[in-house]
């Protein structure tokens, strides 16, 4: 039963990350109709996403530590209830400030209950093929642009009202996430013991882990990686519209990007198990930076599709590798806390892109400098990753 139930954990985790992070990132789909309907600036609406990422980062750390102490199920159940409530309140906001506070704080806090805790849970259930397991849970993020984003666009078109569309997504979050949260279990004692025994950092304290060069370099790489791709991801639909591409076609670019991200997670997860997480991470970061800068030189739908495949594969594929490295460096016992802290740092990077992209567009009525600057930051992430310390060797365990 334990052997088969681990796939239930993977399925529940993938569903949760899809719905929660898909609902959060759907603000990119709402950006244009919200700005038109309310008169709020793109920078103002984008700042809600920036606040989202800041709260998401703090929440990942807090909820990751809570999952280590109290278990994953209670954490994700709280998040399931809170996400539906947050989207409902945001859909009723009557001012930009009210929207920024409800969407920026509550949606970010709710979404943060799923990623780090469920990634940590997956590493506890899997001893072999851990990179692939983490990739499958985070694959929900790749599925989101193919499901939540087109669904949001369809709702906006059907009801001609962004508020109704956001309210329906909130109700859907309740219907899907609460049952999924109730499926989450801790691994059997034997599996948990085996998993903890392999982690060479099993005896490391949280304070010592945070001061280690392994954590510092890992967190800096994660920060720069997310700072590089967050702006292009969030403003991709608006950029496509700016280039004269129709609304549904623009959303379809976002969906292709998400599909490529799903494939990238699986591909780089398998490659990470085979060749090691560090070299695969470095290769992925290099492709990500090159793809970002290329966006500044395209304008046709076919070019968008082709580049979306490369960009989505790269940025989606590298994301699970940070969790694998954290698990190998520090072991399972403090996995939720350590990975939550690394994700908190990365979320600070994610917060810059949407806001800066909005400022650039408002100032220059163009997005070119967003892509050039983001590519430079992406190359910086690759160079930082080069100095990641080698993974420690596992100590033989007594019989």
How are the SSEs ordered, and which strands pair?
Blueprint lengths: L1 H24 L1 H12 L3 H29 L1 H20 L4 H16 L3 H11 L4 H30 L2 H21 L6 H10 L7 H6 L1 H22 L1 H7 L4 H29 L1 H18 L6 H30 L4 H30 L3 H18 L14
Helix pairs in contact: 1-5, 1-6, 1-7, 1-8, 2-3, 2-7, 3-4, 3-5, 3-6, 3-16, 4-5, 4-8, 6-7, 6-16, 7-8, 7-13, 7-15, 11-14, 11-15, 11-16, 11-17, 12-13, 13-14, 13-15, 14-15, 14-17, 15-16
Q: What global shape is seen? A: globular
Radius of gyration, in angstroms, nearest whole number: 20 Å
User: End-to-end distance, in Å?
Assistant: 25 Å
What percent of residues are in strands? under 5%
Calculate the mean pLDDT score and round it: 84
The helix-strand sequence is: HHHHHHHHHHHHHHHHH
> Largest sheet, described in full?
none
Number of strands: 0
- Contiguous low-pLDDT stretches (5 residues minimum) are 192-200, 394-399
Tell me about this structure.
By secondary structure, the protein is mainly alpha-helical. Helix content is 83%, strand content 0%. The chain has helices spanning 2-25, 27-38, 42-70, 72-91, 96-111, 115-125, 130-159, 162-182, 189-198, 206-211, 213-234, 236-242, 247-275, 277-294, 301-330, 335-364, 368-385. Helix 3 (42-70) packs antiparallel against helix 4 (72-91) and helix 7 (130-159) crosses helix 15. The chain starts with a helix and ends in a 14-residue tail after the last helix. The model is unreliable at 192-200 and 394-399 (pLDDT under 50).
